[in-house]
Amino acid sequence: MDQQIVLSPVPLTDLVNEIVRAVRADIDTAAAPQPEELLTRQETAKQLHVTLPTLRDYTRRGYVKGYRMGNRVLYKRNEVLNALQQMRTAKQARP
Fold first, then answer.
1. Which helix (H) or strand (E) holds 95?
2. How do the pLDDT tens digits run along the chain, 95 residues long?
3. Which residues contact residue 10 at a Cβ distance below 8 angstroms, ignoring those fewer than 6 apart?
4. Into how many domains does the chain fold?
5. Which domain, by its residues, includes 71?
């Protein structure tokens, strides 16, 4: 019942090349991680519904983390949203 398939080197090489191309295509089309969206100070303050001096105070206290890019301070959107959620939770937990 077992059948043997005999391939010459050329078709075997072609088959291997085809498989390698298919695997590479799968790797290339795989979802690359999205770059982190950065917000300016103004956008971050608006997101948190605070003024720029308050945002600076929050950054100093460690509530949100700012990243220096040249002369600018930028904030990661997901970190800002997490900080906002933590602030809301802390307000609700107060008696």
1. none
2. 577 777 667 777 888 888 888 888 777 666 556 678 999 999 999 988 999 999 999 999 999 999 999 999 999 999 999 988 888 887 777 76
3. none
4. 1
5. 38-93
What are the b/e assignments for 59-78, b being 16+ CB within 10 Å? beeebbebeeeeeeebbbee
In a domain, residue 68? The reply is yes
Q: What is the CATH number of the domain that holds 46?
A: 1.10.1660.10
* Gap between the Cα atoms of 93 and 84, Å rounded: 14
Q: What is the pTM of this model?
A: 0.59
Distance (Å, whole) CA 63 – CA 84: 9
